[in-house]
Design a protein that fits this description.
This protein is mainly beta. The chain contains 1 helix and 17 strands.
């Protein structure tokens, strides 16, 4: 397991900008040199000021079966402090069979997407993922999946015991022709 605080220096005090620490952690999770399968996020409020990207570029084994796990959605919060309207707080690109659990993503009222699951640069089919015990709040879209503009698919994804609150456009927005078995 990788720990965003102990391995990458994230603070989680709601004041310190933790964006770079999170991006390094996501890069390490995808790296062939890292044998970790889980990025653990301990309790804290993490200030995020620009989009985070988890892009799978190693198709042989490193885009499948990874997990991003928080301590608890009640005390593990990624809170947006950025200015990019229309962007995503977190893009999961070409990731499959991933668990994304026990986190709160708070858009702070910005018109952004909290999680964008897609396949633009990544090399794996974006599907068979799991979102359990998460909170998506205070943004435009909670969870967006797929993208018809590039012909990618997003399917067979489990959304279980999640909360969608104060979202101006959609809790879940399925954006492609193959968004089945959600």
């Amino acid at each position: 397991w990788l720990n965003v605080k102990t391995n990458f220096g994230a603070v989680g005090d709601g004041v310190t900008d933790d964006t770079i620490a999170f991006q390094y952690a996501l890069n390490a999770l995808e790296s062939a040199s890292s044998h970790a399968s889980v990025l653990y996020i301990p309790a804290g409020t993490y200030k995020i000021t620009s989009s985070l990207n988890y892009i799978s570029t190693n198709c042989s084994t490193y885009c499948t079966g990874k997990s991003i796990i928080g301590e608890s959605p009640t005390n593990t919060i990624l809170k947006w402090h950025g200015t990019a309207t229309g962007s995503a707080m977190l893009t999961l690109d070409g990731i499959n069979r991933m668990q994304f659990n026990r986190l709160t993503l708070d858009g702070s009222g910005a018109q952004i997407t909290l999680v964008n699951e897609t396949m633009h640069q990544g090399c794996c089919y974006d599907g068979s993922n799991e979102y359990t015990d998460d909170v998506f709040e205070n943004a435009a879209i909670g969870l967006q999946a797929g993208d018809n503009t590039v012909g990618c698919c997003s399917a067979e994804t489990k959304v279980d015991r999640d909360t969608f609150a104060n979202l101006t456009k959609a809790g879940i927005s399925l954006e492609d022709w193959n968004a089945v078995d959600w």
